[in-house]
Amino acid sequence: MVAPAPRAPSPPAAAAAVLVLSLLLLHVAVIGKCAAAAAAGAANVTFRPGDELRRYRRVQALLRRLNKPSLRTIQSPDGDVIDCVPAHLQPAFDHPRLRGQRPLGPPVRPSGHRRRPNDTADAGAQLWAVSGASCPEGSVPVRRITEADVLRASSARRFGRAPTARARRRDSVSGGHEHAVGYVAGDEYYGARASINVWAPTVSTATEFSLSQIWVIGGSFGNDLNTIEAGWQVSPQLYGDNSPRFFTYWTTDAYQTTGCYNLLCSGFVQTNSRIAMGAAISPTSGYKGGQFDISLLIWKDPNHGNWWLEFGSGELVGYWPSFLFSHLASHASMVQFGGEVVDTRADGAHTATQMGSGHFPGEGFGRSSYFRNLEVVDWDNSLIPLTTFHVTADHPSCYDIQGGVNAVWGNYFYYGGPGRNVRCT
Predict the structure, then answer these.
(1) Tens digits of residue pLDDT in 90-100
(2) pLDDT (tens digit, 9 = 90+) per residue, 120-173?
(3) Are 231 and 213 within 8 A, CB to CB?
(4) Residue of 208, 310, 340, 375 with catalytic role
(5) Residue 147 annotated to the active site
(6) Does the annotation mark 229 as catalytic?
(7) Sheet strand arrangement including 260-261
(8) If 0-12 CB within 10 Å is exposed, 13-18 middle and 19+ buried, where does residue 302 land?
(9) Given 178, 208, 229, 375, which residue is catalytic?
(10) Looking only at Cα atoms, what is the longest distance across the chain?
């Protein structure tokens, strides 16, 4: 499409153009990508200095809101910058219902909560902390958001939010979201626990992602969908690389206007000074090599009603206040475990983005990715095994799932796949 020709700039507009041109010198890499896209897709591109200036101001305002004053700054080996932010200044406390408050103390853990004897493979570590770096007590580690992070998003307004197509959980044709999941439904659920095998799957394009997570769900798959989500994710658009990263998400209106990843909006309240949301997980599993997993527990505190998150073997990460939700203010009606991939069909064929290890579940341990020790939390705040557990895959020829039960892993499943192959086109 050819944009309309620009009008001659007035003196203020001309001054704005000079300012914008100077700012653009700071974005050589971004402009290079834009120029390449323009050369491929359009013969004439109109430069609008007023629009660019407004966009620049929106980005800077967002960065000021998200990047809070810190007590200490830690440089991660992977290039991340971790700010140790006073806990009461984190983004959650910008919410009108939380302003002026401080994080709550520890909740009541579910009965039956224990470290399992085979949890020694828990990856647990994050790259930013491998050298022994840590944040002072009373502060929380927050991954610093950069201008480049925001510019990779479709807009500053949508930064940190999932595409609205995610609401259509099993409609993989619309929106390109494909799943291989196990689930329980038909009861009242107050939490879920699982150990999730960690890999570094290949993601084909910057706008696709591959994740493995727990979904705690309330409402229908319409506009009233409530979800709480946690797991690991490879998302080049969100993080700027291909590392698997610990993440959380929430929404109360089917991903439309509420919720976000990690701490990128006012919602989740972090209480932990050793775990950084959005930071890379290390080590990861290798094909026919060492296998590593992370244990996650999400549950509703019976005293205050908030939904808490535990990482590893006992690290309380923080909580989602119950007032954020409608259906989940009381309980969940479904729990899902598994993988999700976005297929943009960028070159007209199915994506080669991998789910899990990138290998089908039939290959088994050391080759295929897994979830193990699946449990839910019941009305009495007790961890219990799953009953009537189902598994399903949107496109089994692309990504599949196989479940089972044994004495060591309890309820478990292998899942994933390579995406594009001779049967998946």
Answers:
(1) 999 999 999 99
(2) 445 458 999 887 888 999 999 999 999 999 999 988 889 999 865 444 444 333
(3) yes
(4) 340
(5) no
(6) yes
(7) 260-261, 245-251, 226-234, 210-218, 332-342, 177-189, 390-393
(8) middle
(9) 229
(10) 76
